[in-house]
Every structure is written in structure tokens, then in C-alpha cells.
Amino acid sequence: MNEKTFKLPEIIDNENGWGPSPAMFPEKFRDIPYAPYSKADKLGRIADWSTPEQKEKENQYTAYGSGVSSAFAYTHDEDEASFSVVDNRTTAQKKASQFRVTGGTKTRQGGRGGQTNRNQRNGQFTRTGIPGRNMFTGKNAAAVVRRRFGWKDYDKPQRARDASVNVGPDWKVLEEIEFNRLSKLNLEVEDGEDLSTYGTLFYYDKSYDRVSTKTEKPLQQIERVRHITTTSKDPIIEQLAKEDAAMVFATDAILSLLMCAPRTVYPWDMVINRVGNKLFFDKRNNGVYDYITVNENAAEPPNETGDKDNINSPSALALEATLINHFFANQVVNESEKYEFDKSNPFPSSPEEFEYLASCAYRYRRFDLSVKEEEDLTLIVRTQLDSAVKTTAGDSFITIKALNEFDSRAQGAAGALDWRQRLDTQRGAVVATEMKNNSCKLARWAVQSILAGADQMKLGYVSRVSPKDHLRHVILATQYYKPRDFATQMNLSVSNGWGIVRTIVDLCMKLPEGKYVLLKDPNKPVVRLYSVPSNSFEAEEEAALDDVDDLDEDEDNIPSEK
């Protein structure tokens, strides 16, 4: 029986300090510190011999102390649910910590009183106090009561919007572009060239310039026909495409949405048809282009509760705003005076319909999107004019739009001022609030006016007779703006919009012939370009044609003037 003996392993003692002996290191690693760390590193343990050795390629070194501090970070792997933190602060210390301001911008203004306001959107604090007195200490300290930033934000309902169109299983994503990339684009485009103008305009009734909150006028429901035909169904654009007058075709409603895409919040989509070497930007029937949003850009926009009787839901407000714009444009013109262009409206389906047409002219304009001299890339857009105005220099053309007030105390009003109290005395504050809450809508109106070459943009202020009645409205005021001045006031860059258009055109020009959809993500600032089957949306088009046929069979289908 062999007797086994136990031998101690060789132990190398470091007589000069603690840690491994220098004899254990290879010669090439002799000058590298064993455990380097910088003064900024936080040490959780003195030494952790169980930490795996960091694997690095030979002769590849990093900065001193870089990436090794995590080796000393303490990680507790046991269940911490049984532990509790004991707060040994006094009650006075706890109360004082509740009013500590962190990260906010504090602004002090002169005036009486101790009122403290808080901008809940960006965490900024503004206090109006007595001059010469510290607003955080002394006798005023007890009055400084602030709602902490983010307090109970978890309790707010999450708004998950649905896409404007269902993405089919056979749709293929070709490109995804974030809004911050779109905001950096830029292209200088000269003013458009007028090709032709169709329709008849009524002159603007200047008596509405004298309307005020004290002399308000009821909004009349005057029914008139206004056509919003999509691009590829426009007979004039079809003719221009056959003549190779341009490579890209669109309407002002579609193009303005694309140019103002970074300002959009609600979902939208547009159909792009590539036919030969031409692009047609189209809209779907009964889509987002046929309705006007309300407070889309507000910090807390109107919420869709699912209640069909809620008159302040986003869908109900959009329908109300659309009708208000239609009725307002029909009411503020004088039908006894007309400005007739050489060519009549191309859209009426019967001669009888001309009698019921709204004041509207369609101006077809061509823009040069070329970047190089040898390049030939032009775009034709159908724009709209709403009225004519007599001036000392001659007749000028304008667009007519209307802002609407629903209920300044309702959810989704976003801090809107009471128009009946502020519109006459604080018009600038009202406009500034509308520019903030309806940035996308107002930007699109300005772009449409610029595309049409309008001399002025007429803006009306329409409010409900009662906050609970969404069917009766009154006109409280009107105001003129020059489109480009209005765009500058809104910090709207038209060249950025042209840059977005050129980018999307370049993407589509590289694709083969077919149908594509540009879709805005319903909950993210992102647009995606999809390749879709050629028969997509045919069912919607057939349903729309059936509705038109049903109206044609009805003898009373033409709306009458009230």
C-alpha cells in the first residue's frame, strides 16, 4: 500500500506589499499596474479576486483606469425585498425636502403678491413676488408650494393612437426616416410659375373687418360645393402629365402636409404612384386631408374617450372645425361681385352644379426642384384661392381660414385664453397660444397660401355660442396676414419643407414603377415608406364611387343655400 503524502503548493510571498508577487507576471506585463483606477472611479470593494480577467488583445492598451472600475462595483445578488430603509431625518427636514427645486429655471418678476406659477410641460418655475424679498427664504418660504416635476405622471392615461391606415401583411418597409433628420434638410426653391387658373372668385366682404367681441356675428350654415379631388383624378393634371409638363404632381393639401411633416403629431399617410418617370402624390378618400385638426400640438391634446356623445373628442372637434372653415369661407364673401377667370371650374359633373359652387379658384403652378443646371426636376401643384379683394393697386387674391374655440375649461383646451375676454385687448397672446397648440395646422395654411401665390391670408376667430353647444357658432374677429410674414412669425422654414419634398422624391425615383405609401407612425416622430400591392385601396375607391352614384340618383343631392 503506497502511502500518499500531501505537499504544499509553492507560495510566492510579496515582501514589498500586498497582492500578487511581481514574479508571477510575464516580463511584457511587468510595467502595467495591477489594478489601475482613476480618482473618478467608485470602489465597491477593496479587491475582488473572483472577477474574471478582462480579455484584451495583445499589445492593445486603453487609457489609464478606463473600463476597469466596473470590476470593483458591488452587486448584491440576494433578494432585497426583505430590506427596508430607515429614514432618521426629522419631520421638519422631510417637509423642507419636498419643496426643493432641482433642474428648474427660476424667474423672478416684480409685482405684488406671492403667486407661484409652474409650466408643467418643461419643468420651469416662475414666481411673481414682492421686489427685494428672497422668494425662497424668510416669510415667503411658506407660500412657495410647487408641484414636483413628474409627480404622478404614471397615473396619466397613455395615449396610444392607431395608424391612419392598416398596414397590410404584404406591405414591405423600404425606408424609415426620423423627424430630426427631416428637420435638417434644406433646399432653396424659387417662386412658382403660373400655368393656368380655373374657377370663379367672390369678392371679400370688408364689413367683417369691423367685427369684434362686442359686435359678433352668427356663423351661418351656407352650403356650397367645393371639390377636393385627389391628384391622379384631376383632369387638368392628367393632361399636363400627358404633355410631360413636369415629373412630379401633387395638390397643395398633400404637399403642405409633407413640407410640415416634422410638426405633425397625429398619424397620416399619402399614396405615391410611380408611373413611368413620373410621380403622383395622392390622398385616400375620407382621409386626414379632408378634416382639420384641433390642438394637435398641445401638451395635452384632446383625448379620445370612446364616448360617441363627447363633443370635445379629437374626431368630433375635427369635424366641427372642418364645417366651421367651410361655412366661414362661404359667409365672408359677397356673392353679387365675382372675379371670373378665363377657364371655368373643371370639376362639376353637370351644368346645374355651377350655380352652387363655392368661391374657389384652382391655380396650377410649376416649381423647379433641380439642384444642378443639367438636372430637370419640376413639380406641378394644384393650389386654391378663396376670394378676391379690391385694392388701390388692383385686384388681389387671398385664402380664407378660421380658428375655432370650443371650451377653454375642457380637457384638451391646453391653456387657451377666453376669446371673449382677451381677443380685443390681447390679440397677440391669443395668436401665440394658437400657434403653440395648432402649430401644424397653421403652418400648413401658411404653406398653402405661399404655394398658391396668395397676397394675403384671412384668418377668422369663431367660437361656440355656448361651450356645451357644438352646432351654433359666432364670428368674434378677423385678421389679415401676409403668408411669408406669418411663416416667419411661426419660425417656419419653407426651404426646409422643399428639402423634405426633394428627399422623398429622390427616394421614390430610385424605385421601380408601382404603388407606395408614406406613413407617419401613430406614436413616434417617424415616417416609413412602404411598397404596397397595386390593387391596394381599390375597395375604398369603389365604395366612394358607389356613394357618388347614390347621390346622383337623388334629385335633392345638390345642397341649397340657406
TrEMBL record:
Subcellular location: Cytoplasm
GO cellular component: eukaryotic 43S preinitiation complex; eukaryotic 48S preinitiation complex; eukaryotic translation initiation factor 3 complex
Tree of life domain: Eukaryota
Keyword Cytoplasm listed: yes
Chain spans, region RNA gate: 288-302
Alphabetical UniProt keywords: Cytoplasm, Initiation factor, Protein biosynthesis, RNA-binding
Keyword Protease among UniProt keywords: no
Purpose: mRNA cap-binding component of the eukaryotic translation initiation factor 3 (eIF-3) complex, which is involved in protein synthesis of a specialized repertoire of mRNAs and, together with other initiation factors, stimulates binding of mRNA and methionyl-tRNAi to the 40S ribosome. The eIF-3 complex specifically targets and initiates translation of a subset of mRNAs involved in cell proliferation. In the eIF-3 complex, eif3d specifically recognizes and binds the 7-methylguanosine cap of a subset of mRNAs.
Domain notes: The RNA gate region regulates mRNA cap recognition to prevent promiscuous mRNA-binding before assembly of eif3d into the full eukaryotic translation initiation factor 3 (eIF-3) complex.
Family in the record: Belongs to the eIF-3 subunit D family.
Protein name: Eukaryotic translation initiation factor 3 subunit D
Native species: Ambispora gerdemannii
